[in-house]
């Protein structure tokens, strides 16, 4: 059997947190779609329940992301060559957009703004996921 070492644990934590942050948003969209029609009063509690899991997952993504960078050996001079540095910078912009979009979605009052910020959060998360896989 292949070894389960600290590197495997580190990447597993990063990927698990990504599945919760990104996959959870997609599942929530599908749930809210149905709840709006069948039990509108349950929409806000369902979103709050997801937030309790999602924000810790976002924090784990950032912590394990910096841990990935430190262990990957990319932090030495020349380690960001071959497009890696550009991909990392674009990914960080998308991570910020994802967090900001999700936070502004939570605090927005008007349905139009809720929709816009929710979409910004989800698209940022999907973009960060795509670039993360290309870096992995
Ligand atoms: C929305 C936030 C994020 C998502 C969805 C995400 C997703 C991913 C995914 C799916 C991988 C591929 C893992 C693999 O197969 O090896 C990955 C790798 C990586 N991520 Fe992230 N990530 C996020 C945030 C961050 C942050 C904030 C950092 C740095 C501060 C970071 C740094 C890295 C690095 C360095 C790798 C490559 C790991 C390796 O060398 O195996 N990520 N990310």
Present the secondary structure layout.
Layout (H helix, E strand, L loop, with lengths): L5 H33 L4 H29 L12 H24 L3 H25 L1
Helix pairs in contact: 1-2, 1-4, 3-4
The structure holds protoporphyrin IX containing FE (HEM).
In short:
The protein has helices at 6-38, 43-71, 84-107, 111-135.
Written description of the protein model:
- The protein is mostly helical and 136 residues long.
- It has one domain.
- 82% of the residues lie in helices and 0% in strands.
- It contains 4 helices and no strands.
- Helix 1 (6-38) packs antiparallel against helix 2 (43-71) and helix 3 (84-107) packs antiparallel against helix 4 (111-135).
- The longest helix has 33 residues, at 6-38.
- The radius of gyration is 17 Å and the shape is elongated.
- Bound molecules: protoporphyrin IX containing FE.
- The site of protoporphyrin IX containing FE has 22 residues, from helix 1, helix 2, helix 3 and helix 4.
């Amino acid at each position: 059997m292949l070894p389960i070492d600290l590197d495997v644990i580190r990447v597993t934590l990063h990927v698990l947190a990504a599945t919760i942050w990104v996959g959870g948003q997609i599942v929530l969209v599908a749930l809210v779609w149905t709840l709006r029609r069948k039990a509108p009063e349950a929409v806000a509690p369902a979103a709050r329940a997801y937030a309790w899991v999602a924000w810790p997952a976002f924090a784990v993504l950032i912590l394990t992301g910096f841990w990935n960078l430190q262990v990957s050996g990319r932090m030495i001079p020349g380690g960001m060559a071959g497009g890696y540095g550009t991909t990392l910078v674009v990914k960080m912009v998308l991570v910020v957009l994802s967090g900001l979009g999700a936070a502004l979605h939570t605090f927005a009052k008007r349905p139009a703004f809720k929709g816009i910020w929710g979409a910004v959060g989800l698209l940022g998360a999907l973009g960060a996921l795509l670039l993360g896989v290309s870096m992995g």
